[in-house]
Amino acid sequence: MGYAYKKESGIHEALTFPNVDVIRVSETEITDILESNNFPMRQLPVQNMKNETIEVEKTATAIIKKVRDAILDDVFKPGDWLPERDLATRFEVSRSPIREALQALEKEGTVIAEPYKGAVVKPLSPEEVLDIAELRLAVITLAAKGSYRHLSPADFDLAYGLAKQITRSNSAKEQFEYNRRFWEILFEGSRRPIRWEVFRQLDDRLTRYNPLALKLFPDPAKRPRQREVLIEFLRKGEVDEAVRAFKKLYLEVVHRIVDHLKTENAG
């Protein structure tokens, strides 16, 4: 049976075909009905929007990792343009998560956004790498001094094994992953989560320099072993010596990168 509603003086009347009684329904009753569980469809658009937002965020996180992996694999090099359309095609996603990912990468200092042009992988800079390296060293020193008492023999063994894998690996992506796990062990031991958060941010920003470091130290046998030395001394409880030995080898790598970039820029 077809029907329609007519509103008169706050009362809704259901106008039906002849010979059928008129149903009188108040506005309050209609509101109660619409807000009841009898009409769950009213909630669906909001829930769908929330689900879509979560999905975009998840996809954007995955895109960030893919872009970072491409930088580590030297597919995306410093100075390369990253058009949204090309990335969407490459990673088979819409442009919304690409845009979210590029904004996050810009915030961490990995890319630079150019109005009306897109994003570009941020060029390497001797000043930047030195700043990042010095800040990392300060946070690492704090973590080393606060962690060694809380690390178990198994923790030391795992960290030392990862350090050796970093030294042996000829893949910047593998080195990055092993390095992240190595430092996670030490920072968990220090039980200071904010320091770990700061370190991760610095480490992410340093990603662009990893392929260069690998090129400057191509022979695993001749690479500085700063992480291994750090663990060897920490295991024995010699914290100050651990920090000094680590710092010496660590800065050797940093200064090699800085000198290379200065020479390259001068040329």
Query: Low-confidence parts, pLDDT < 50 over ≥5 residues?
Result: 2-17, 33-42
Count of DSSP-assigned helices: 11
Could you say what the CATH topology of the largest domain is called? Four Helix Bundle (Hemerythrin (Met), subunit A)
Rounded average pLDDT: 86
Give the strand tally. 6
Q: Provide the β-strand percentage band.
A: 5-15%
How many domains make up the 3D coordinates? 3
Task: Give your account of this protein's structure.
The structure is a single chain. The chain is mainly alpha-helical and 267 residues long. It has 3 domains: 35 residues, no CATH class; 79 residues, Orthogonal Bundle (Arc Repressor Mutant, subunit A); 141 residues, GntR ligand-binding domain-like (Four Helix Bundle (Hemerythrin (Met), subunit A)). It contains 11 helices and 6 strands. It has a 3-stranded antiparallel β-sheet. A 3-stranded antiparallel β-sheet has the order 4-6-5. α5 runs antiparallel to α8, α5 runs antiparallel to α11 and α10 packs antiparallel against α11. The longest helix has 29 residues. It is globular and about 55 Å long. The N terminus is likely disordered.
